[in-house]
Amino acid sequence: MDSVLAETAAPYSAAGGGAGTAPSTGQLPIRPAPEQNLAGTASTPAAFDIVTEYNNALIRDPEVTKPVAAIEALIELLRQQPTTTIQETVEMIKTGIDALKSSVANPIPLQAGTDLFQEYILRCIKPPEPSRKSSKRGGGTKSPPTSDYVHQDFDDVRLHLLNNTYLFALRAKEARVRIAEIGSRYVLDGRTVLTHGGSRTVSALLLKAAKDRLTQGGIMFNVMYVESARDNAEGGDTVKKLREMGVSVAIIQESAVAYVLPKADRVFVGAETVCKNGGIISRLGTFQLATLANLFNVPIWVAAETHKMAKVYPLSQYDLNVKQEIISFRTGDDLVEGKGELVNIGPEQVRMVDYTPPDLITNLITEVGIKLPSAVFEHQRQHLTAHGKVGNFGEMFEKSIRGDASKKHRSTSSVGTEDVSPDFGKVSANPDINDLPSPVRRLVQVPERLGHHGRNKRKGGRSTM
Amino acid sequence: MAPFQAGNTPQLDIFIRGLKSHPLEASTETLVSLLKRRQISGSRPCAIAAVHILRQVVAKAPYRDVDGLIAKIQQTGQRLVHAQPHELAVGNIVRRVLGLIREEMQEDRTEFGGDSVSDLQTLCPEKEKETKEHVVGLPVLSRAPTLGGWSHQSAPFSIMNLLSPDQGSGAGSPMGRSGTSTPMLHGQNLSINNLKSEVLDGIDEITDELEQVDDQIAGYADIQIHPTDYILVHELDSTTERFLLRASRERRFTVFIAQGKSTTSKAGDATPSLFQKKLNSAGVKTINISNTGLAAYMTKVDKVILSVRGVTADGGAVAESGATAIAQAARAFGKPVVVLMGMYKLSPESTPDPRSLVEWGEPESFVNFSKGNMVNTVEVEVPLTEFVAPGLVDTYISNIGVHTQDHLPSLIVDHYNEQDSDFVLTIPA
Q1: Is the pLDDT of residue B44 over 50?
Q2: Which of A191, A306, A419, B333 has the most CB atoms lying inside 10 A of its own CB?
Q3: Helices B43-60 and B88-113, interaxial angle, to 10°?
Q4: How many domains does chain A have?
């Protein structure tokens, strides 16, 4: 940790300097050939610090988001500390995540990534499921999986993750490009949009919209760029680029937002995290901007990748579990210069955040399309498991081993037969693993839908992609 | 305006009858021109026409595989949508059919795939094994991870896609472990006929749904309308009519009919009275009120019922002009606004520009050519429809239930495939 703090002084020079503190943790931006990865596991350095790895991931590619950096760090952890059993792996990942979370002031963005990673691992370590289709076809059942089989597959999963670290970052960036494509359609000809802060997603969106007008014609739009005095360096680059492309950009002081809002047609903001209820956690000032935008009936659009969706459900501003000192009452006695302004932990200068409730948000722009805030829940229900509490990964794993999870049923009748899991009874060489009653599958299952299905005769929901 | 769609319009009937005898291309052309000339108008007739032509495409058009079928549907769909872009229902029907095909395709594929049956098959361990070989040789990202890798469309990205192995890597991958390309093609050819009949069945279900939709919505009437209620209606279409008539069987209530659209001076006066007669004979008291004096009655009104032409994904409603004024008045007085929509009216897209959904009419009833000096000097805009902002609607009643705005995303997920949401923009291969 100390070394990390030392690096924070000069974040952008740390990429070079950091190499000394974390020897051979593989600081190359792109992994070399796969063989070398395998070789790398052999020469494990004694002290692998996941926090350092996370910070390095953020430093070496400024474009990368925190969830993705967390995923990269976790994969690095898998690489550096080879494990033999699944249990061990699960434990290791859990400790790694805890270390990561405790290292930053605002663990929520990172948590979106770690949730995703846990989810993925959990899904992968489940045994292959006896298929309902094959039973339907009658007699087509495959031979029961052996314990080797499961384990083998986990090795494959591991290998897949290790070999493709960079791929995830690439995909995350692709998502941003896609958001820009979708969102730029919502920047209308000749209108004025207002944006806030240095969201990379929003920048990409606006630049795409400007570029489209340069290439395909159309009336250029105007941008009102709200900047606070504290971090005005943030959007400078975007403003410059936009202006170069012929977009008129007005820099607006944060205090002037209410004054200018009636002149804006749409507000675009980014988000650090999208909460379960569709609210967002974003840099300080977003809540205030959204409140004002609603007052003036200006629609507010949030551009955020789906990997930023985290399983958090803040009840209020003060329920974020983020270490930030925004309200600090002081008297004359304890006035200390500059204190309570910014907390410096890690290479990221912690930006203070606030929570914008979903009812203030008009729509979310994600790489899968325009979504209502209420669709976030639906999306998570489809793609992430339903385990309510955050961070009960180990517990969930335990459950899956003991078979508690099989109590959850799917409502659709077509699956009813499957509820009594055939693989439940099969015990072979390694009961621990073989008894996994297809844990995640079940946890993922949708609870009773509210009494309706899309097509009466057909399967209700759509399948998970 | 086409206030009453009791039965199909003659044009639509002629079109449907002609479908069997005419070649596909000719029917498509006919429909496109009928839509363009507004000879088929109104969301339900348009939807019915679209279903019929798409059924013909599935039945008659030449295609060798699912991809070909999807492309054909997309092409036809795009022509229809461009012919009548204001009618969201047309695009919705096309999406429904596309979704249907994809669903059948996936079912088929999993049946043939055998091993990788689970819905989570993209994450299934055996797939990992398979993909590993591809991964070693530098995975190509540009290959869109599509549903089964069969489609040319850009895929929906999901949360899990971030981590999952490269999907659609090579033709074999959808087949799970045993996936070499030969058995897949074989299976696909075998299944195309199955798929065809399945899809045709599915389309017939949609047709049934379109026929029953008004009745189903009317089923919620006596829950929504209470004795001695005062109901304000605006748009007088078959859905609203059926709804009120059904309620009148069990309830005694009063209906305010908001009128005063001078744009429909020609036939407009006759239709409300016809509607009124029906209601009156059913024992419902009706009161005509003028749009301009509407807010004065709002205190008396218990519920506003709007029938709409389409609903966007975020809950905005395309309704006949004047609806926003009513909805806003209702909001100001705290009265609930209920929208009646068949599922075919719910679009999975939200619109970048609400103005683009507005249909503009001729200004002749306001300024005609006899007032010569006005021509070329005064610009008169006459919206036939307008966009009611999402927040102004409280309840959506569809044929499958009563929903709030928050409920719409899950309805959309149930009915459409994400891949098809912007099929209008994609160029089919």
Answers
A1: yes
A2: A306
A3: 40
A4: 2
Give a yes or no: residue A436 inside a domain. no
Contact B162 A374 (CB under 8 A): no
Q: Do A186 and B352 touch (CB under 8 A)?
A: yes
Run of H or E including A339: none
- Assess whether A115 and A191 both reside in one domain: no
Both tokens of residue B41?
């108008």
Highest mean pLDDT range out of A115-119, A386-390, B177-181?
A: A115-119
- In this predicted complex, what is the ipTM? 0.72
For residue B177, the model assigns a pLDDT of 33
CATH of the domain at A367: 3.40.50.10470
The more confident residue out of B369 and A75 is A75
Which domains are delineated in chain B? 1-213+418-429 (1.20.120.420), 219-398 (3.40.50.10470)
Q: Which of B110, B163, B313 is nearest residue A133 as measured by Cβ atoms?
A: B110
In angstroms, rounded to a whole number, what is the distance separating the alpha carbons of residues A375 and A361? Answer: 12
Which of the listed residues A371, A405, A438 is the one where a domain comes to its end? A371
Torsion on CA atoms A132, A136, A141, A147, rounded to nearest 10: 10
Q: Which residues constitute the domain of residue A47?
A: 2-128+142-172
Q: Are B350 and A363 in contact (CB < 8 Å)?
A: yes
Angle between helices A147-163 and A165-184 (to 10 degrees): 60
List Cβ<8 Å contacts ≥24 apart for B99-102.
Answer: B99/A462, B99/B415, B99/B416, B99/B417, B99/B420, B100/B199, B100/B202, B100/B203, B100/B206, B101/B66, B101/B69, B101/B70, B101/B73, B101/B195, B101/B199, B102/B70, B102/B147, B102/B151, B102/B417, B102/B419, B102/B420
In a domain, A450, yes or no: no
Strands B317-320 and B303-311, by their bridges, are antiparallel
Query: Does residue A80 lie in a domain region?
Result: yes
Q: Which residue of A has its CA nearest to B133?
A: A160
- Judging contacts by C-beta atoms under 8 Å, the chain B residues touching residue A463 are 103, 106, 119
Model pLDDT, residue A350: 58
B349 touches A: beta carbon within 8 Å: yes
Q: What angle in degrees, to the nearest 10, is found between the helix axes of A86-103 and A50-60?
A: 60
In a domain, A44, yes or no: yes
| CB–CB contacts below 8 A, A to B | 182
Q: Last residue of some domain: A328, A348, A371?
A: A371
CA angle A260/A191/B347 to nearest 5° reads: 115
Q: What is the DSSP code (8-state) at residue A349?
A: B
Alpha-carbon span B114 to B92, nearest angstrom? 33
Cβ-Cβ contacts under 8 Å, A370 against chain B: 313-314, 349-350
Contact A306 B158 (CB under 8 A): yes
B267, exposed or middle or buried, with CB in 10 Å at 0-12, 13-18, 19+? exposed
Residue A111 reports pLDDT greater than 50: yes
pLDDT given for residue B289 in this prediction: 85
Nearest CA in chain A to B203: A455
My answer on whether A57 and A158 are in the same domain is yes
Are A250 and A266 within one domain?
A: yes
Query: Binning pLDDT at 50, 70 and 90, where does residue A389 land?
Result: very low
The Cα of B278 is separated from the nearest Cα of chain A by a number of Å equal to 33
Q: What is the largest CA-CA distance in chain A?
A: 82
Closest to A278 measured CA to CA, from A158, A398, A371? A371
Which chain A residues contact residue B418 at CB under 8 A? 368-369, 465
Residue where the block lists tokens 């990172």: A110
Minimum distance, in Å, between the CA of residue A199 and any CA atom of chain B: 20
